[in-house]
Every structure is written in structure tokens, then in C-alpha cells.
Amino acid sequence: MAFDFDFDLLRELTEASGVPGYEDRVRDRVRTVFEGAVDEVRTDSMGNVIGTVEGSGDYEVAVAAHMDEIGFMVKHVTDDGFLKVDALGGWDARVLRAQRVRVHTQQGDLTGVIGSVPPHTLSEEERETEDAVEDVVIDLGREADEVEEIVAVGDLVTMEQSTVKMGDTVTGKALDDRVCLFAMLESARELEDPEATVHFCATVQEEVGLRGAQALGVDVDPDLAVALDVTIASDTAGVAEDKQVTRLGEGTAVKLKDGSVITNPKVTRRLRDVAEAEGIEHQLEVLPSGGTDTAAFQKANGAKPVGAISIPTRYLHTVTETAHGDDIRSTIDLLTAFLASEDGGHDYSL
Questions:
Q1: Cβ neighbours, 10 Å, residue 93
Q2: The domain at 71-159 falls in which architecture?
């Protein structure tokens, strides 16, 4: 059961490039999927895509998952033809050394590598120096004059990585948050004749401050919002159990809180009740830090009841993010069952 879903679509979404503010390639694929699954598709001026399934009642629910991935923007081309970059999103510089990247230019995509000095030539002092994103240098393997001709300040950089099956898991780049975007799209395709009108929202610029969802929450103005994002699964060697947050293979995660939001207790209870009634494997998430689109919808256009569903993921913000196939399936199932049961009759006021 580990891959009981459209893996090819998931691979397409994760391997596509789309940093904050420049989600075009992902947006095009999302619109194509929506065309065959929803009643109306629209895009706003920020680039959010909304696919609406019209319900038979007056109640409206928004579901959000973000399209953007962390990446970089070129800020300078050195006289020697190397690229200096500015981060788009939160990077741990330790994972960047010796990685392959794609530089997206007006003339097409170029392969590059983030340079790494051989340890043989480092002094003791240099060995102890901490890595920093501002020190990243990208080598395109070209002469300086050719680089100057092709690459411009403002060009975008993403990590280069394929998405593959690994045992019962999926691993690759940009599972944050394309694996949840995928789960949302699958739910849109599977949801049939809901009583509530459901707005499936593929949002932008989450990695730089939940910006797309904050604007979209005002425009859509739902009665209830549920956001999907990955969460930490540090269930690996050497990590204390109380710091693991979630574990791979133990089901979708119902978020109780993160650094940006405390979810509505009644919405959380309903999510858990639906999961239990449908026999959907699930676990609870208490995330010490970080933020998701959930918080943006909670505060937009007045207080809103919000809930959040998360997919446990190892090695977040690296090129080897890893999620379990069964957890992906249970996330699709819980979201779909929850939306199908929403009829406006549940009181989420506190």
C-alpha cells in the first residue's frame, strides 16, 4: 500500500522548479490538474491558484498547500565567472556544500555546482569556520565572459535532484511542500458532490513569510480553513523521542501547534474523530517552531477557525527530504473524508 497514489504526478511536482515569487512551472502543472477536477480555476495577481468545487450549501472551506520551494537569487557575478546568491527561504548552509544546482536564465537552465574547498588545503582555523549562505559560490564550468553573457542578476537558482522511491518512502527535493500540494490535488480529484463549497488553494511565497496565503485569506474569506504542510520527522538515530515530533509510517499528522499557530481545538477534535471513524492512521503533531499557511488564514479578514494536516518528513530543507508512502495516502484520505463531512453544521466557535 506504500505507493497507492499517482507517483508520476508527485515526481513531476517535486522535480519542477519554483522558488518564492517565481512558481510558474509548478503553477502551470497545478492548473492542468485542476482543469479536470474542479468547477472553476482562477489565479490572482500574486500567483496563487484557486480551484473551486461548488457545494450544494452555503458553507465554504479553504484548503491550502504552498507551491514554492527554498532556493536562491543571483545577486552578483564575479570577475572570474562565479555566482554569488541571496537566499530565498531558510537554508542550513551545512547541507549546501558540493551540491548540484540549476541556474534558471533567460537563455535556459544551466547546471552548476556549489563549490567546496578540498580539506587538504584548509588550515585548522578554516576547518572550524561555520558555513554561511552568504559564502556560497556557484561554479558553472564556463569562462567568465560566457557567464557574464548568459547569467544576470535576478536569475534564480534551485537544487538539482530527482525524486525516487526508496523502500517504502519517497525521497527528493521540494517535498516541502509539493508532497502536500500533491495530496491536496489528489483530494480535489477524489472529492465527490460535497455539501460545502471547497476552495483548493495552491499558495505562493510561503517560505518567505506566508505571504500568498495571507493575501488569499482575505480574497477567499472562508468559514473554515485547513492547511497542509510537511512536518519534522526526526525519528532517526541519536534523536531523543521527545524531539522527534512525528515518525514515518505512523500516519498523517494532525497539528496541535507550531511556532505560528495553535489550531482550533474543535477543528482538531473533528479531524481526529473523522480519522478514527474512517480507520485512517494518524498521529499528533506538536512542533516547537516553524510556521505554515494555517496561521495566515487564521488572521486574515477576521478570526477564522483553522486546522492543519501534516505529512511527516525527514531531512527537511535538504535535497533528500523523505516521506513514507502510507503517510501520503493517509493524508489524502483524511483530507477527503473531512471535506466530505463538512456541511456547515459543526460549531467551531470557542
A1: 15
A2: Beta Barrel (2.40)
